[in-house]
Amino acid sequence: MFGGVVRKLTRLFAVVLLLSSAVVVVVVPGSELRVRVRLADGLITEEVLEADSERDSISLEFKQGDGTLVTFVADFKQDVKIFRALILGELERGQNQYQALCFVTRLNRNEIIPSESMARLRQKNPQAIRLAEERRGLEQLTMSAAVNLSRAWQLSSHIHNMCSEAREAIYTREADVKYWLEKGVDGSMFEVLPQTTELPGLQPCHSAKDLWQPCLCTYNLRLEWYPCLLKYCRSRDSAGKGTSYKCGIKSCSKGYHFTYFVPQKQLCLWDEET
Ligand SMILES: *[C@@H]1O[C@H](CO)[C@@H](O)[C@H](O)[C@H]1NC(C)=O
Predict the structure, then answer these.
(1) Which atom of ligand 1 is nearest to the CA of 149?
(2) pLDDT 10s per residue in the chain (274 long)?
(3) Which atom of ligand 1 lies closest to the CA of 146?
(4) Which stretches make up the Out at first protein BRICHOS-like domain (predicted)?
(5) Is residue 54 domain-resident?
(6) How many CB atoms lie within 10 A of CB 56?
(7) N or C: which end of the chain has fewer CB within 10 A?
(8) How many CA atoms lie within 13 A of 274 on its CB side?
(9) What is the 79 CA–ligand 1 centroid distance (Å)?
(10) Hey, whose CA ends up nearest to atom 1 of ligand 1?
(11) Does residue 239 lie within any of the structural domains?
């Protein structure tokens, strides 16, 4: 009973974190933030950021100019992050309506702000087009292991929802697998995929000739805007003592370059143009 009251009070007096130099806005319940963001190709997209304090997670979703829906989830409970891309297929080339890809990897400390801070984030001017304050480089990720969807719940309760459409295309890094095994996660959910060393004929998909041959696919995505750090401001209390408090966020942009095995070049047709 007290829990409810305390929660209400905390909500009432919650510190509102603001984007840029805006003024305090009414704290509305619910924790969804819609931010207008300019993508690399100049297009403007609406990014939806959501915080789930109960599950201690953040999700971020936006549509790219080519129609691809990109979803990112940071699961702080399990220190796991999940990227999903729903790529529109080319029906005239015999592909499905869309193709789903899921990349699961370790969430490092301080990559993104905590979910409870995210839940308090508000913006004064929702129409403003936001540009990240810090543009981070492209991280290379070699996703050489597959994750079995029906066993992946142990790794993160979000994988099932996020990746059910990807099924045969849920990937992770071997270094992450090693780390999770050491933490006691059941190894039967992982399967190491063929590498260049084992299959000498394995080549990048863009240089593979046959649509049915296995190859190494690459996929790039960029989280164009996300709150990566909390900003602290200093103030003096009545006794003249200095204190610091959370007063905003720093925004970042970061690119990811995934390399992974596909059993058929057909599943990696975007690699042709690169
Ligand atoms: C994934 O796990 C399920 C349930 O444990 C099992 O039935 C299935 O064969 C596994 N799939 C693969 C590809 O190993």
Answers:
(1) 1
(2) 344 433 443 333 344 555 543 433 444 445 789 999 999 888 999 999 999 988 999 999 999 999 999 999 999 999 999 999 999 887 777 777 889 999 999 999 889 999 999 998 888 888 999 999 999 999 999 999 999 999 999 999 999 999 999 878 999 999 999 999 999 999 999 998 887 666 777 899 999 999 999 999 999 999 999 999 998 888 888 888 888 888 889 999 999 999 999 999 989 988 765 4
(3) 13
(4) 31-180
(5) yes
(6) 15
(7) N
(8) 13
(9) 24
(10) 148
(11) no
Instruction: Give the pair of three-digit tokens for residue 115.
Output: 């979910």
When divided into structural domains, the chain yields a total of 1
Kindly list the strands in the beta sheet with 80-88, ordered across the sheet, starting from the edge strand earlier in the chain: 129-130, 32-38, 44-52, 57-63, 69-75, 80-88, 98-106, 170-172, 145-147, 190-192
For 10, phi then psi, to 5°, come to -60, -40
> What's at 228, amino acid-wise?
C
d(CA 21, CA 23): 7
In terms of residue numbers, what domain contains 207?
25-222+255-273
Structural domain contains residue 236 = no
- 37 vs 130: CA distance, rounded Å: 5
Tell me which residue has its CA closest to atom 9 in ligand 1. 148
Ligand 1: which residues within 6 Å by Cβ?
148, 150-151
pTM (two decimals): 0.86
Determine which residue's CA is closest to atom 2 belonging to ligand 1: 150
